[in-house]
C-alpha cells in the first residue's frame, strides 16, 4: 500500500511553527515518520500533502527526500477535502495509509504491524486507536477522545482507506493498540517533552 502524510496544517496546541517542522532533538518531526515509512516492507510509495499553509514543510521534504518522497498540493482549508484530493492526485490503486506528521516514535515495524492488521480486518477502512488509560499512564492529556462501546479511546492519527472508493463513506473497523510509541502524537509541549524523554533513554 501507499502512504500519505497529511502535513498541510499549522500547529495549534504547540503554538510554534508548522507542525511537521517542529524540532525534536535535532530533526524535524516529519523526518522520523518518513524514515519509518520508507523502511517499512508493506509501504510502496510515500507522499506528503502540503498546502499554502505549510511552505516550510514542502521545502523540508524536498531538500531531504526529493527522489524518494512525492509532494501533493491541496488548499489546506478542509482536512477531509484535502485528504480526498491527495488520494485522488496520488493515483493510488489500492489501500492507502493516511497519517498525521507528528508520530516520531512510530517505527517501520509498527507500520508493518498496522498494515498487516488491515489485511486481516476485512473492511475497506481501518482506524487506529489507543486506550485513554495509556495516556494517563504517560502523563499526557489527548486532544480528542471517543466513547467506543463504553470504552474511552483516542485516535492516534493513522488510518487506512480504500483509495478506489475514497469519495464514499467507508465501512470502518477500529484497531486498538496499547503501544506508547504509536499512541504519542506531538500535539502539545508536554507530548514533545515526553518524546524527548523516551528517545533519550
Helix content: 25-40%
As residue ranges, the low-confidence spans are none
Largest sheet: 8 strands, mixed
Q: What overall form do the CA principal axes indicate?
A: globular
End-to-end distance, in Å? 33 Å
The number of distinct helices, counting runs of at least 4 residues, comes to: 7
% residues in beta strands: 25-35%
CATH fourth-tier homologous superfamily: Spore Coat Polysaccharide Biosynthesis Protein SpsA, Chain A
Question: What is the SS-derived class?
Answer: alpha/beta
**What is the total tally of β strands?**
10
- Helix and strand run: EEEHEHEHEHEHEEEHH
Please give the CATH class.
Answer: Alpha Beta
Give structural notes.
With 201 residues, this protein is an alpha/beta fold. It has one domain: Spore Coat Polysaccharide Biosynthesis Protein SpsA, Chain A (Alpha-Beta Complex), CATH 3.90.550. The mean pLDDT is 92.
Question: Topology of this structure?
Answer:
Blueprint: E1 2-6, E2 23-24, E3 27-28, H1 29-39, E4 46-50, H2 55-65, E5 69-73, H3 79-90, E6 95-99, H4 108-121, E7 125-131, H5 132-138, E8 146-148, E9 151-162, E10 172-176, H6 180-183, H7 189-200
Parallel strand pairs: 1-4, 1-6, 4-5, 7-10
Antiparallel strand pairs: 2-3, 6-9, 7-9, 8-9
In short, what is this structure?
The protein is an alpha/beta fold and 201 residues long. It is built from seven helices and ten strands.
Amino acid at each position: 500500500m501507499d502512504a500519505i502524510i497529511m502535513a498541510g496544517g499549522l500547529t495549534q496546541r504547540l503554538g510554534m511553527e508548522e507542525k511537521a517542522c517542529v524540532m525534536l532533538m535535532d530533526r524535524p518531526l516529519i523526518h522520523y515518520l518518513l524514515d519509518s515509512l520508507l523502511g517499512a516492507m508493506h509501504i510502496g510509495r510515500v507522499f506528503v500533502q502540503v498546502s499554502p499553509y505549510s511552505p516550510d514543510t514542502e521545502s523540508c521534504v524536498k531538500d531531504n527526500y526529493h527522489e524518494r518522497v512525492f509532494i501533493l498540493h491541496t488548499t489546506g482549508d478542509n482536512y477531509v477535502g484535502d485528504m480526498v484530493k491527495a488520494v485522488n492526485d496520488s493515483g493510488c490503486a489500492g489501500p492507502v495509509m493516511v497519517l498525521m506528521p507528528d508520530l516520531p516514535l512510530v517505527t517501520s515495524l509498527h507500520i508493518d504491524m498496522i498494515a498487516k492488521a488491515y489485511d486481516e480486518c476485512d473492511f475497506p477502512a481501518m482506524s487506529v486507536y489507543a486506550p485513554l488509560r495509556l495516556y494517563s499512564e504517560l502523563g499526557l492529556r489527548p486532544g480528542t477522545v471517543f466513547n467506543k462501546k463504553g470504552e474511552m479511546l483516542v485516535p492516534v492519527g493513522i488510518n487506512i482507506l480504500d483509495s478506489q472508493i475514497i469519495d464514499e463513506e467507508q465501512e470502518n473497523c477500529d484497531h486498538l493498540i496499547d503501544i506508547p510509541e504509536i499512541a504519542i502524537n506531538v500535539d502539545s509541549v508536554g507530548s514533545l517533552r515526553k518524546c524527548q524523554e523516551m528517545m533519550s533513554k
